[in-house]
Amino acid sequence: MEGLIRQAAVPLLQQQARGFASRAAGFWNSSWFSHVPEAPRDPILGVTEKFLADTNPQKINLGVGAYRDDSGQPVVLKSVREAERRVAGSHFMEYLPIAGHRQFCEDSVKLAYGEDSPVLKNKQVAMLQSLSGTGSCRLSAEFQGHWMPGSTIYIPTPTWANHLNIWRDAHVAIEQYPYYKPETRGLDFERMCDFLSKAPAGSAVLLHACAHNPTGVDPSTEQWRELSQLLKQKALLPILDCAYQGFASGDCDRDAQAIRIFAEDGHRMMLCQSFAKNMGLYGQRVGCWSIVCDDEKEVKAVESQMKALARPMYSNPPVHGALLVHTILADPELKKQWLGEVKDMAERIISMRTLLRQNLEALGSPLSWNHITDQIGMFCYTGLSPEQVDKLTAEHSIYLTRNGRISMAGVNTNNVARLAEAIHKHSAAPDYLFRLDRPPAPHRGPFTAAAAAMSGAQWGLKAFCIACAKFQEGDALGEVLAVAATAPYFAIYHAAVLLHARRELHMVLVFMGLLLTSALCTVVKKVLKQPRPAATCTLLGNCHKHGMPSSHSAVMAFAATTALLLYLHRRRASSSSGSSNGICSAGIRGAGAARTARRSGAAAAASKGSSGGGDFVAAAVERLAQALPLLEVLLLWVLTAAVAYGRVHLGYHTPAQVAAGLALGSSLAAAWWCITLAVCQRWGPVLRLPLLRALHFRDTLGCPDVHAAEAEIFVQTADTANKRSE
Fold first, then answer.
1. Distance CA 279, CA 341 (A)
2. Max intra-chain CA distance, the chain
3. Hey, what's the torsion of the CAs at 141, 146, 149, 150, to 10 degrees?
4. Are 63 and 399 spatial neighbours (Cβ–Cβ below 8 Å)?
5. Mind listing the pLDDT tens digit for each residue in 606-642?
6. What pTM value is reported for the model?
């Protein structure tokens, strides 16, 4: 429900704000568009821009998702050239129908579902020509928003970044399920199934049919079958994005296994096809969107609504690319040629994976590079950290996205050795994020890198960090919030120091409460198993950790709430003369008498015409001292708010996870405070035990101003000692 509210409310508020800004601009006769901010740069296109600006002749572009030959040049397939020759001058340039080129659509679905597929023979598939894969996905999102109102789309983490943009702009609630396991550089199948098993019936699940982008990690055939059964049992709608059929393994049938398994199992599903990669038709924007329905009657209704969505978007699809694909797929000889060329492209990429891994291992890298050849398709998820990617770019002119994804199409026999050397140089650094899937060495003694290399031990390194918050380079606010993120640890440390220095009974309980809050958050996280924000967890390296609730927020809320309750309790104690113990009362009375004397002296000085400047300053300092406890409480709440906001701003938690942490910490603090009062009131005599008396433990909970009482007692003691010495 929270996701639905956020998806619906945020765009509405943004639209209202933009409308207000536009009306204000018109009223003041300024530019109508002065309120429009610059959109953030696309991370992939930004890589290409930097690559083009680099003058290094040995620069390497591993960011763009387009095929290149072994010379690094774009490729037009021979089968496509032949199709172009046949199409040129043989067709009119008239509009296509809204649903596009019908023969092209029929050829496309046969390629995906299989020529003998029952869903095609029974005419269960509604189909429409789309603007490549992006257009298919956008139409799927719009269809879900229109005809599955209130439903949620479950998107893998990580995924192609545009998936999130597409469903967000269609105002469909988004949840992200775990997919990739950084520790093994493979599929996190168990967590994925566990997460999806809790999805409400009627939700949709986005799946990459093959060659998952960006990880290159696909389920096995058995896992696809298990996943199909899970989605069917839970009444979840599969939406398969098929952008790399044939391009992943070199075999179109093998790459379509997920689609065919789901169709055979009787799923009603959506399929988004693209011919940009497997035919090299990047600029033609040709794709096919299809929906598997119950029967021919349902197909007719669904297809009419598919066209109704396309009409206001772009009216009609382009004709040229559809003619090229139809010409190739409809001609047996031309199709055979194309299948051979697709296999050649896939095999070149597979060979580059093997060559890159061999080069890295030949350089003596102690790390495991199995994932390079285990992954499939155009992209490889290297596991390089953003900092190491920056070093590859700055020192070697090697360009890739900061999540460590490289396009294997950009690797060739001329640059693979240089690429391996650069990766080897920086992957050996301590900040490398690998936690290897190799078995640990049996030796458990002191470890050195040299000893490991000499003994051949293949160890995975794991860091232990008490407080390590990452922020985007250049984000000044993020840097401040990263510093604030250390506050929960200092709160626990501060409580421990006060416990040692002050020996106060209630501080024992406060310290125990802070530890209990942290432990309870850990337990709740393991029970709920809610993942961290998918958009940032891979970059932060915490996808394997759970996020509900936020421990930072809970600990700070506990500390701030306890401080407020302590302040209010002592305020009440100051109005009750019998609330404090005898020593505290004596100190407070002495401090009060001293304040009264100072005020009388100030009044006398004023009556004699004295300027009283010093007394005014003293009075101001006194008032500040009296207000200091409240200021400390307010400062702690401000710091709590900063920590809570920082967990969302830095990408460590969702707003709901932070809110849950704040609620848990505050509630636990209130309950724990009742226990603290009961312990201090009923168990006060325990302080008379010899051990606690020897350690000088005391109960100061009822003392309104401990510092004032102690200071006055020390002054009185010093005065008494001085009088005796005289």
1. 9
2. 122
3. 40
4. yes
5. 455 544 555 667 666 667 766 777 888 888 889 899 8
6. 0.61
Q: Model confidence over 640-655: pLDDT tens digits?
A: 998 899 888 888 888 8
3-state secondary structure of 171: coil
Are the C-beta atoms of 698 and 505 separated by less than 8 Å?
yes
DSSP one-letter code for 408 = G
Name the 3-class secondary structure at 538: helix
Contacts of 716 (CB under 8 A, 6+ apart): 590
- Report how far residue 108's alpha carbon sits from residue 101's, in angstroms, rounded to the nearest whole number: 11
Q: Report the alpha-carbon distance of residue 421 to residue 364 in Å, rounded.
A: 11
- Measured between alpha carbons, how far is 120 from 111 in angstroms, rounded to an integer? 11
Residue 292 CB-density burial (10 A; 0-12 exposed, 13-18 middle, 19+ buried):
buried
Q: What confidence score (pLDDT) does residue 689 get?
A: 60
Token reading at 591? 């401090």
Residue 598 has what pLDDT? Answer: 46
Query: 177 in helix, strand or coil?
Result: strand
| pLDDT of the residue at 170 | 94
Which residues neighbour 254 within 8 Å (Cβ) at sequence distance 6 or greater?
248
Give the residue ranges of the chain where pLDDT is below 70. Answer: 1-30, 428-468, 473, 498-503, 505-506, 534-535, 537-544, 573-616, 618-622, 625-626, 682-726
Crossing angle of the two packed helices 221-233 and 257-264, in degrees rounded to 10: 40
Q: Helix (H, G, I), strand (E, B), or coil: what is residue 663?
A: helix
Residue 488 preceded by cis peptide, ω within 30:
no
Residue pair 308/90 in contact (Cβ under 8 Å)? The answer is no
Angle, CA 90 vertex, CA 84 and CA 93 arms, to 5°: 95
- The alpha-carbon radius of gyration of the chain (Å, integer) is 34
CA-CA distance, 279 to 313, in Å (whole number)? 25
- Which of 521-559 are b and which e, b meaning 16 or more Cβ less than 10 Å from the residue's Cβ? beebbeeeebbbbbbbbbbbbbbbebbbbbbbbbbbbbb
Coil, helix or strand at residue 174 = strand
pLDDT at res. 243: 95
Distance from C-alpha of 701 to C-alpha of 376, rounded to nearest angstrom? 65
Q: Contact 158/379 with Cβ under 8 angstroms?
A: no
Q: Which residues are catalytic?
A: 160, 241, 277
β-strand pairing of 379-381 with 60-61: unpaired
CA distances from 512 to 507, 516, 676 (A): 8, 6, 11
What is the pLDDT, as a whole number, of residue 454? Answer: 35
